[in-house]
DNA sequence: CTGCATCCCAGATGATACTG
DNA sequence: CAGTATCATCTGGGATGCAG
């Protein structure tokens, strides 16, 4: 009820009407917000930061196969969208700590549910893929 | 409690340990499952199909700015992961109906919560972006 | 109506080297 | 330590034309 005036059926049709009317990509909440957190590394980093704040190098070690470039860029994007707070400490050498903002923690609620679903149903998805590929042979 | 043996802290560290041990990309549930539904069009199509089954052309009209190629490919991928059922009717000309499977409906639960969060907080994210960009000037 | 094949481009990602 | 810059690469995605 709150903040969600439309039921599901009308929602998808409203998006269509918006698109038909020439509304830009950014006007569709689903695409605009979901795309911002659906990058290759975004969900993993938000998940890590949901636990506690981390420094740049710590995050890097926590996700061993991320490149320095992608770690910098993904954190930058998450910060721009308001999910992550970046704090610089003028030590020597300098250190930078990343943490979730209130908005980030709020978003992690639903995201966490999706992550838990993924963990519970990982094997089901893998089985479906295997079955599909086998049938295609 | 059910089906989720690890608390959040240990989870991210377990993923790291897995990666350190040389586990492949596909062994991380977060990446393997989340990536499959984080394509540019996946969430939108699942959202449409959660309402009711649709035919190919109907989906195309519902999402006006998707190309035929991407519609075919995204539906194919969703079917491969077990979220979507594809049924061909031998009419003339032929028609094909797409619908969510039980797994797809199950996955849409958490996804829907994320979508609702996106709708509720779309403006907050946009504001954060605007503020960030303004500060960078 | 539905779907596949081909060509092609822009953006996403990675590897490496360099800097405050 | 925490980046930035540059170059190379890989993939997603669009346009178009053909086919069952």
Question: How would you sum up this structure, described in words?
Answer:
2 copies of one chain form a homodimer. Chain A is mostly helical and 137 residues long. Chain A has 2 domains: 8-38; 43-113, Arc Repressor Mutant, subunit A. Chain A has 6 helices and 3 strands, in the order H-H-H-E-H-H-E-E-H. The first copy, chain A, has helices at residues 8-20, 29-37, 42-51, 56-62, 68-80, 102-136, and strands spanning 54-55, 84-89, 95-100. Chain A has a 3-stranded antiparallel sheet with strand order 1-3-2. In chain A, helix 3 crosses helix 6 (102-136). The longest helix of chain A is centred in the C-terminal third of the chain and has 35 residues, at 102-136. The first copy, chain A, starts with 7 loop residues before the first helix and ends with a helix. The interface between A and B is large, with 63 and 63 residues. The structure holds a DNA duplex (20 and 20 nucleotides).
Give the termini separation of chain A: 48 Å
What proportion of the residues of chain A is helical, as a percent range? 55-70%
What CATH calls the topology of the largest domain in chain A is Arc Repressor Mutant, subunit A
- Overall, the morphology of chain A is globular
Strand content of chain A: 5-15%
Oligomeric state of the chains in view: homodimer
Q: Which structural class fits the helix and strand makeup of chain A?
A: mainly alpha
**Architecture of the largest domain in chain A, according to CATH?**
Orthogonal Bundle
Helices and strands of chain A, in N-to-C order? HHHEHHEEH
- The number of helical segments of chain A is 6
